[in-house]
Amino acid sequence: MIIAVDGPAASGKGTLAAGLARHYGLPCLDTGLLYRAVGHAVEAHEDAPDFEARAIAAAQGLDTGHLDNPELTTARAGSLASKVAVIGPVRRALFAFQRDFALQPGGAVLDGRDIGTVICPEADVKLFIDADSKARMERRARQLEARGVKVDRYALYHQIEERDARDRANPNGGFYPAKDAHLLDTTLLDIEAALRAAVAIVDGAMARKGRPLPKADRP
Ligand SMILES: Nc1ncnc2c1ncn2[C@@H]1O[C@H](COP(=O)(O)OP(=O)(O)O)[C@@H](O)[C@H]1O
Ligand SMILES: Nc1ccn([C@@H]2O[C@H](COP(=O)(O)OP(=O)(O)O)[C@@H](O)[C@H]2O)c(=O)n1
């Protein structure tokens, strides 16, 4: 079973993807880390005339074994990620790794922006996660504060809005809900309630297809 989880920044898609992966016993890939890793690799050259060429080379040579670098989780890395994400050849260079991950035997859960539209249009279940901008900003602020980062909420709000706008306008992107995506707004749901809602969507979608579900790890 392949589950695609897309949505804007800090909507909770990574948390839900990880929860669904645990629930169904599937491997999980946070595809945003690939773009963050490319952005991080060319950080020092952000204003250089050859920024684009460097980003393409970084994407083509990306070592996907080092996606657990904590520096990839910063707001700066997120912002750089959305700058390299508009470069078509960067997206093409990252495509095969994501596609192979999705198609591994037994299936997978992937989260990002274009999983249901570009990476895996044939996914069994597609979720498009959203939450209002203020809730998303507050979640990201608390996440950063829990890591000891001092947060300016006004600046963070605008940073997230700017990144979302760049992502939505990305001509090479695919960041929109697929026609067959299930929309899940988590503004008023805590993490547990959001995961219950996501599991109900996946169970319902698979039952309608008459497809058996992988073993759930519920008691
Ligand atoms: N439904 C929710 N209610 C409250 N906090 C949430 C919810 N979903 C996720 N979070 C928290 O918000 C932060 C951002 O979630 P994350 O899953 O990383 O978002 P995304 O992958 O969309 O950027 C994390 O600290 C996470 O624990
Ligand atoms: N499948 C994806 C995943 C991320 N991205 C880009 O990478 C950036 C960082 O993605 P992320 O998922 O780590 O960001 P958050 O939503 O966690 O803040 C996004 O703002 C997009 O520009 C993308 O273009 N396509």
UniProtKB/TrEMBL annotation:
Organism, as annotated: Arsenicitalea aurantiaca
A GO CC annotation given for this chain: cytoplasm
Keywords for this protein: ATP-binding, Cytoplasm, Kinase, Nucleotide-binding, Transferase
Pfam families, A to Z: Cytidylate_kin
Superkingdom of source: Bacteria
GO molecular function: ATP binding; CMP kinase activity; dCMP kinase activity
EC nos: 2.7.4.25
One record GO biological process: pyrimidine nucleotide metabolic process
Domain Cytidylate kinase per the UniProt entry, residue ranges: 3-198
Protein name in the entry: Cytidylate kinase
CDD domains in the cross-refs: CMPK
Similarity comment: Belongs to the cytidylate kinase family. Type 1 subfamily.
Catalytic activity field: dCMP + ATP = dCDP + ADP; CMP + ATP = CDP + ADP
Kinase listed as a keyword: yes
InterPro entries linked to this entry: Cytidylate_kin, Cytidylate_kinase_dom, P-loop_NTPase
Residues the record lists as binding ATP: 7-15
Gene designation per UniProt: cmk
Subcellular location: Cytoplasm
